[in-house]
Design brief:
alpha+beta; 4-stranded antiparallel β-sheet; DNA-binding; homodimer; 223 residues
Chain lengths: 223, 223
DNA sequence: CGATTAATTGACAAAACTCAATACGAGTGG
DNA sequence: CCACTCGTATTGAGTTTTGTCAATTAATCG
């Protein structure tokens, strides 16, 4: 069976801060572990023990309510560091969406190493700051944009973050997309169909979106 | 004229991480400056120059779209540090909601001091991590909860963060509440009226909310 | 090739939004 | 001190967007 991978086993790279962030940090990470599709990396409310980095595959960072409503706070893709939190407990869970290779290190030793060297301390902080920045962007989307704008932005975000210039191989099912965008799967599906009819995208199969009119998508998603 | 203040001029305190975070950081901050009601502390897209701390008053952290839609990403209240970002440009603006006293320091010197001392570096990171945590909480609210749940959570959040056990003096108008919660002012107003009719709160005047049934509010807002 | 899971489509319902009217309150001037 | 004005909040009526529930279609996996 062909293992599903989101892009190649990419070298570490920070998506927003222009490269060069993670190579140093990567030295602090331990050996990599394979997580199967849909397996839990850490549970919601579990105590924080480790820091993680995605080598290949992809991870959803999600939070569940008692009644089953779920919000995905982020997707972690190859090159992303995650689980780097100062709190004692995770307020979101992390699950591998597909078979994924994840590097792990105990948080304590990771941080001790980090604080001992100013340049590294700065990078750890900058990484957290990037995550904060992304969370704020996403918050903005969830608060103030239409379903159409969210889906358009999602396609562009995935294209950018997976570095898949034009043909996006989505590692996640519609359910995850919906829970990320604060919509239902039905709405996501309808908007995909709409964008297809407007010839902004095409959908060769469920897991691929091809961008056919990038500037129109950008205009639609622009904030 | 009586100046509007959100609680007393409180000593620094970190809301989530149990106190003791900011006293050390406060030493790094410069002199305080008074910002008038509705004045801009930094603009959206402005380059990042400084780090700020609220001494008294309150600040909204907001982002505007071309067509006028606005999302408030956070409210900063006495004791909060803000503007601590690794990016070069602000993607949100910061404006004082009421007359506010703000301490400021150049980011460069602040960070240099921080990195030179591991304990301090750790606190700076932890502070950013707290902001990240709040952003994720808020993201969850915006994505997956009803108007009623958002408003209930808002009242409790303000009560907690302003340490106003039961009688909340809201520093911000309905427009800001709405833009924070991703709703319209009409919806916020209707929900306040609803909560009042259910006797969960009372509204002595526009700027005050009295909590009358805390556990019911908690249940309503609970995630 | 059939069974199972995931995605799409359709019809209808509900939540929140828009636009308009009204009420309230703070501040100002008579 | 009272009346007037202006900004803000509330309330109401009707619309829109998105959600819900059900049926159908398309992939995937034995």
């Amino acid at each position: 069976m062909l293992q599903w991978r989101t892009g190649a086993t990419a070298p570490f790279r920070s998506s927003e801060s222009g490269g060069g962030l993670l190579p140093d940090v990567a030295k602090l990470m331990g050996a990599s572990v394979e997580f199967n599709r849909d397996s839990e990396i850490f549970e919601q409310n579990a105590s924080v023990t480790s820091v993680y980095a995605v080598v290949s595959g992809s991870v959803r960072f999600s939070r569940l309510m008692q009644d089953g409503r779920r919000q995905i706070g982020a997707f972690y893709l190859p090159g992303d560091l995650f689980g780097l939190e100062s709190e004692d407990r995770h307020s979101f869970a992390a699950e591998s969406i597909v078979n994924s290779r994840i590097k792990m290190t105990k948080r304590g030793s990771f941080l001790e190493a980090a604080w001992s060297e100013p340049a590294l301390a700065k990078k750890i902080w900058a990484e957290t700051s990037v995550h904060l920045h992304r969370a704020q962007e996403h918050m903005f989307r969830l608060g103030r944009t239409t379903a159409e704008e969210r889906v358009a932005a999602f396609v562009l975000e995935m294209d950018w973050r997976l570095r898949s210039s034009g043909l996006v191989a989505l590692p996640m099912p519609r359910r995850d997309i919906a829970d990320y965008l604060g919509l239902t799967i039905e709405t996501v599906s309808r908007i995909f169909t709409l964008l297809k009819r407007q010839e902004l995208i095409s959908i060769p199969d469920w897991r691929h979106i091809a961008i056919r009119n990038r500037s129109a998508l950008q205009q639609m998603s622009d904030c």
